[in-house]
């Protein structure tokens, strides 16, 4: 995943030296519809009695971007709720949780004079956790995760397929940390910090 982020970032940097042609103009609006996988980092912290492992989740995603200047846009990311299993290594599943991770980002789209337009962005993420459920050895207990604020980084590549349409491949890294409570008592902290990889169709108005 880290190689994917680095590759997209290098491609975007290289494009800065390309022919100056506008990819997007001030006032343009785009809407995106895609499918993305949230992959938490491998070491998510420790809860009694062991190391936590949080599972992956794939869901439809939606984006809207408004260009405040040529090639510079503000994007909002939304999605259907992601659902993850919470596992303790050596014990198995101890819970499930859903979350919504809206992200607002400032993004620069590098003009290349071709059908390929790389971009990079950075912004703020708010993750709301809900529908927590204790399972396995914790069944019958009340499990909860606190909501989270954090930095989000974004890089991607658009391939223009028509006057208004583009196909997008992108990757994000999101800083998500949450206190975990069992029956109202804090029992630890999880560091999810996922990489989010996916594809989308982008329509420009």
Describe the structure in your own words.
It is a single chain. With 205 residues, the chain is mainly beta. The chain starts with a helix and ends with a strand. It contains one helix and 15 strands, in the order H-E-E-E-E-E-E-E-E-E-E-E-E-E-E-E. It has a single domain, classed as Porin (Beta Barrel), CATH 2.40.160.20. The strands form two sheets. It has an eight-stranded antiparallel barrel with strand order 1-4-5-8-9-11-12-15. A three-stranded antiparallel β-sheet has the order 10-13-14, with no helix packed on it. Mean pLDDT is 89; it is low at 15-21.
CATH fold topology: Porin
Largest sheet features: 8 strands, antiparallel, barrel
What is the N-to-C order of secondary-structure elements (H for helix, E for strand)?
A: HEEEEEEEEEEEEEEE
CATH class assignment: Mainly Beta
Strand content: over 45%
Low-confidence stretches: 15-21
Number of strands: 15
Strand order in the largest sheet: 1-4-5-8-9-11-12-15
Rounded radius of gyration (Å): 19 Å
Helix content: under 10%
Structural class category: mainly beta
Distance between the termini: 32 Å
Number of helices: 1
Give the integer mean of the pLDDT values.
89
- Tell me the domain tally: 1
Q: What is the overall silhouette?
A: elongated
Q: State the CATH architecture.
A: Beta Barrel
């Amino acid at each position: 995943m880290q190689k994917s982020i680095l590759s997209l970032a290098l491609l975007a940097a290289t494009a800065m030296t390309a022919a100056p042609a506008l990819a997007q103009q001030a006032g343009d609006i785009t809407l995106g519809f895609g499918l993305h996988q949230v992959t938490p980092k491998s070491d998510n912290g420790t809860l009694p009695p062991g190391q936590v492992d949080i599972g992956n989740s794939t869901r439809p995603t939606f984006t809207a971007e408004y260009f405040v200047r040529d090639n510079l846009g503000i994007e909002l990311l939304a999605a259907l709720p992601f659902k993850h299993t919470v596992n303790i290594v050596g014990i198995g599943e101890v819970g499930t949780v859903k979350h919504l991770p809206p992200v607002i980002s400032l993004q620069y789209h590098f003009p290349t004079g071709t059908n390929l337009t790389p971009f990079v962005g950075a912004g703020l993420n708010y993750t709301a956790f809900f529908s927590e459920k204790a399972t396995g050895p914790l069944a019958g207990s009340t499990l909860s995760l606190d909501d989270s604020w954090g930095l989000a980084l974004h890089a991607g590549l658009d391939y223009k397929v028509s006057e208004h349409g583009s196909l997008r491949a992108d990757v994000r890294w999101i800083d998500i940390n949450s206190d975990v409570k069992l029956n109202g008592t804090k029992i630890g902290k999880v560091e999810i910090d996922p990489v989010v990889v996916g594809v989308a169709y982008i329509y420009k108005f």
